[in-house]
Design goal:
alpha+beta; 1 helix; 4-stranded antiparallel beta sheet; elongated; single chain
Amino acid sequence: MKTILAFSIFCLACLDFSPMLQAQQFTQTIRGIVLHATTNEPLPGATIKVLDIEERIGATSGVDGSFVLLAVPVGRRTVQCTYTGFEDKVVILMLTSAKEAFLEIKIREG
């Protein structure tokens, strides 16, 4: 009798937590650098953002042109880079949970 009761309680607990387990989403980091397309010089202050997700994820490139986008949901992602006086650049990539992505974004003056 105690075994059946314990099993019933266990099953109810599992049902109670199942939506939380199903809601778990894998994420990954995107690192990269923004460079001038002609001179290959780093471009500090460029804005990089992920376009195709509800949550806003973005970053600004540092003095060396590097950036990091954290906790990006895995899957097919569209990343946009904007910089004053330059053409916008859009990069589409397949982000997996196995490995961080690295983007070298070269943009042209516009």
